[in-house]
Specification:
Layout: H1 2-5, E1 11-13, E2 27-31, H2 35-46, E3 51-55, H3 73-78, H4 84-97, H5 103-110, E4 115-118, E5 125-129, E6 132-137, E7 140-144, E8 146-149, H6 173-176, H7 186-189, H8 222-225, H9 232-253, H10 255-262
Parallel strand pairs: 1-8, 2-3, 2-8, 3-4
Antiparallel strand pairs: 5-6, 6-7
Helix pairs in contact: 2-5
Length: 289
């Protein structure tokens, strides 16, 4: 909606470097209600924005930390080995509960009297209006000087430049698992179905063996591994897993040279002369009374 209808000087996404000083004394809108949206809201307010209005699609802010119940060692360490149906169900639970903003991020924004929260308020249109933009919202038409999209990310391998040429060869969750009618989700089904080292798997075995050398350490690994991969909670488990898989693959790919190295002649650490004086030599012994 924003990129197709507005000039770039009127909007930004939270993935970009935003010059918040230019928002001083301006009426700012923020779309989204998770962590990045609230962080952008607070920084804009702290930079002197006249007002900041945050628009959320839900009728209340997501506050149920679904992922936290998986934090004990058994589930955390072995999540990737769970049956597909269980992993899918957990992903659906998270999607329906929503991504929770940190309480301190909410408090940081709420303390400003010029912060305004709009619930059940998805935008339906946005268009240029004089030197500003005019948004159509459930709360009426509102003119803003700038809008920030804190709308997260989407998993679409075909639109990822470095993967687009061979994305059709990558196994996705929709290729591997068919959920029940009440758990259908096109967004989650587009996530790649990953191997134990976060590596891509082939949709057709033997067609693209190079895929095993591409490892996914970002949110596209969410359905397979049950955490926001790339965020702090995933570091302890998933960085070692990816490193171990890469190490194993490199070792086995060069197995012939490693076998030769393992079987190569090796020099003795010491010569027999080191222990020769202590070697027992048979001789007549007369027992003493």
């Amino acid at each position: 909606m924003l990129s197709r209808n507005l000039p770039k000087e009127l909007y930004a996404h939270t993935l970009e470097a935003i010059d918040f000083e230019k928002l001083r004394d301006r009426l700012v809108a923020v779309l989204g209600s998770a962590a990045s949206a609230f962080d952008a809201t607070a920084v804009a307010l702290e930079a002197g924005a006249r007002e900041v209005h945050l628009f959320a699609r839900r009728d209340r802010l997501a506050s149920e930390p679904v992922i936290r119940t998986r934090g004990y060692p058994g589930a955390y360490d072995n999540y990737g080995s769970l049956p597909d149906a269980l992993r899918w169900h957990q992903a659906i639970r998270f999607r329906r509960a929503g991504s929770t903003p940190p309480p301190d991020a909410v408090a940081r924004a709420v303390k400003f009297p010029n912060f305004h929260l709009h619930l059940s308020a998805p935008w339906t249109s946005a268009k240029p209006f004089e030197r500003r933009l005019l948004a159509t919202t459930p709360d009426g038409n509102i003119a803003f000087g700038f809008v920030i999209a804190g709308t997260g990310y989407r998993v679409d391998l075909a639109k990822t430049p470095e993967l687009a040429a061979f994305s059709d060869n990558i196994l996705l969750w929709r290729d591997r698992f068919s959920p029940s009618a009440d758990e259908q989700d096109e967004t989650l089904s587009a996530h790649p179905y990953l191997g134990s080292g976060h590596e891509f798997l082939e949709k057709a075995p033997g067609r693209a063996p190079y895929l095993r050398n591409i490892h996914v350490f970002n949110p596209a690994a969410f359905v397979s591994f049950g955490l926001p991969i790339g965020d702090v909670p995933s570091f302890k488990r998933d960085i070692p897993a990816v490193i171990a898989q890469i190490s194993r693959d490199l070792f086995l790919d060069d197995l012939a040279s490693h076998e030769a190295r393992i079987n190569a002649p090796i020099a003795d650490d010491f010569e027999p002369a080191l222990y020769a004086p202590a070697v027992w030599r048979t001789q007549s012994v007369v027992a003493a009374e």
